[in-house]
Amino acid sequence: MLTLKPTALSSFSSSNPIPYLFKPLHKPYHPLSPKPSSFPIIKSILQYNRKPQLAGTTPRVVVITSGKGGVGKTTTTANLGISLARHGFSVVAIDADVGLRNLDLLLGLENRVNYTALEVLNGDCRLDQALVRDKRWSNFELLCISKPRSKLPLGFGGKALIWLVDALKHRNEGCPDFIIIDCPAGIDAGFITAITPANEAVLVTTPDITSLRDADRVTGLLECDGIKDIKMIVNRVRTDMIKGEDMMSVLDVQEMLGLALLGVIPEDTEVIRSTNRGYPLVLNKPPTLAGLAFEQAAWRLVEQDSMTAVMVEEQPKKRGLLEYYYFFKYGK
Ligand SMILES: Nc1ncnc2c1ncn2[C@@H]1O[C@H](COP(=O)(O)OP(=O)(O)O)[C@@H](O)[C@H]1O
Ligand SMILES: [Mg+2]
């Protein structure tokens, strides 16, 4: 019997560097989805070898947000940041999760954070002393707002973060291409502070209703704040669960939130391993599925591109004689 099965991990886009990474197992493609080109693999290799073209004006100040905690904001910040640096762009990642900072851990830079942005604002150190340069990619720097377990100080708000972003723009080293802000969970003061200097947002969500409701609320707040360029990353996607109709497909998520899709990241145990090792997934050799998906998302971020989630029809199952017998007898 021909059944319609949603699949999340299929995308084709003119500038998609590895268009077949998420090629679904079943054909044919949805009639509305663009047809793949005749030499997709060659095309993808060529695209992967070229440098993505930076769209928009620099610095691109991007906030990585979600509303709900634990959906993968910090993982996304670390992997997008390192990917962008690998493509040759200068990146400053700001950990704005005051009190619960962990971006330094994911990047393996925790032992090198001597000063924080609060000390810069208090006049206790210079900005360049608070910036931690990555040893692997010298064009990647980390700025932590505060020490772990400290509370958001009363005087620290959106204006202070705007001041910091301005200071980063006018450094002697030159203006960075990307300033990525890792936003805290929730929609209170910390969230408002983190989104204030941003002109674009990446909303991270998982395909479950609690995360989607929070993402929807956050989208409204971002729009109220004047951030119109909002793209989403759907994280921790499991095709087996989607096929079993136990998980929402990316197409469903996209229809519910109505946002442009920047990337789809599969659930991958390597993410947890890389988190614990302080070694971002995109640096893994050989690359993992989730690492490649982050790499693609970074590529789209640079070019202000997006991907499409499509519905895929499953091919009719070939039946043996016994199956036909059961089909006619029991109708399945
Ligand atoms: N695609 C994924 N597959 C498996 N585990 C993931 C994935 N994305 C995130 N995680 C795990 O989820 C946990 C929370 O991620 P984190 O980035 O800290 O979330 P947040 O910053 O939104 O609170 C971490 O342990 C991380 O390793
Ligand atoms: Mg976090």
Automatic annotation (TrEMBL):
Record-level GO cellular component terms: cytoplasmic side of plasma membrane; cytosol
InterPro entries found in the cross-reference section? CobQ/CobB/MinD/ParA_Nub-bd_dom, MinD, P-loop_NTPase, ParA/MinD_ATPase
Checking CDD domains in the record gives: MinD
The GO terms describing molecular function are: ATP binding; ATP hydrolysis activity
What are the protein's UniProt keywords?
ATP-binding, Nucleotide-binding
Q: Where is the CobQ/CobB/MinD/ParA nucleotide binding domain positioned along the sequence?
A: 62-280
* One Gene Ontology biological process: negative regulation of cell division
What is the similarity comment for this entry? Belongs to the ParA family. MinD subfamily.
Mind telling me what this protein is named? CobQ/CobB/MinD/ParA nucleotide binding domain-containing protein
Protein source organism: Carnegiea gigantea
